[in-house]
Specification:
The chain is α+β, with helices and mostly antiparallel strands. Helix content is about 25%, strand content about 25%.
Amino acid sequence: MEDLIYSADKQQPSSPLTNPWSKKKESSKSPKPKLVGGFVLVHAGAGYHSESKAKEYKLVCKRACQRAVDQLKAGALAVEAVAAALIELEDSPFTNAGMGSNLNLAGEIECDASIMDGKSLHYGAVGAISGIKNPVLVANRLLSEAQRGKLSAGRIPPCFLVGRGAQDWAVNHGISPCPSEKMATKFSLSAYKRNKRKMELAEKMDTGHNQRKKRRQSTENENGSGCLDTVGAVVVDLEGNVAAAVSSGGLAMKHPGRVGQTMIRKLLKRSCRVECPAAAINSFVSLLMKPKTKEFFPSCVELIGYPHENAAHYGCGCWAENACNMNPYSTAVSTSGCGEHLIRTMLARECSAAMQSEDAHQALLEAMQNKFISSPFLANEDRVLGGVIVLRCCRCLEAPPSQNIQGLLVEFLWSHTTESMCVGYMSAQDSKAKTHISRLPPGSLPGQCLAIEGGVCRLMSVVE
């Protein structure tokens, strides 16, 4: 993996960090110039990423990063850039979001998406929406409409719409519809037919054929047909504004109308040991094993893949919050994985709160272990499946204020308990995005251990 620590001048930041949001700056006669640029971190889902399609996964992450950076260079705010990244991820046939999403039991595509602006703290989301190519566009439009204020007669504007109501609202607000059959790809249609046959077979099976199920699961992974979860992105612009977004096609063969629900694949009891390699700021990986194994219960859902995501739920799919007097850091989080687990633990918001600690790496490590894997709300679960991408930032002083040099120190991380997670990241000063498929070490049990990696980036700007 490429070195994960970099900056505009290729030097590690050494100056003290400050919180400019807690102090008012001296007034100036001339208006404050708008700063352009920023940083983006995206993911193509926490789940299973086959080696045979690694190139395609990385390419879509690169394109999403580039699209967001193009927006930032053009002067767009973080929330506009993060929406642009999601559109690119949704348009890829290799992701389970937008085009090529999983089909439900009725053979139709229903998607979830949400977006949050750290500056205004407004949020927009859609659930089980069909007939819309880019669900994040609807979520973003809901957010922007909410920022306009109340509707006629003092009505509160909606922030979360589902089903036919969401589709009608989108069309009424100028978002073009797209027939569900045009959103399906050759891959998603073949997966639907294959899963339908498996479900029919599962109904005839008893729960004692573990070896046969294990062989089918292995074959599915080898074919690269394991279901991937939500895609997402987090962005910070040079003004220090953060934003986060997620989008998902949900669980394969889900019931029509389902939002953020889940099913768990069976896991055989196995003993395992703790592995904790040393962490380094430039490239670190830490692994934590779940402290105890639990009784498994029969399930045939393993024939289909990883569970449905929580893309639409507030505080679970994404979270973004600018720094303020109480919080020294601006934080943005986007999650992926088992929707039920992420909903019951409010993982996005928990990780955001944890990022206010001094050591970002240790804080995320503890949040994933204590608030997720070992959460009392998930005490009866075999495996706790999920992944997050996180960034936090604050101002750093690199020179006397008279030189008008402003900078942001950005710390970015990703962590997952699933088999793998594909990420990409890029700053406005970079010529191209960097990508990486993070995987659990061989022999590690998904859902019972975690991997965490990340780095730092310093963004500098000279104000004329």
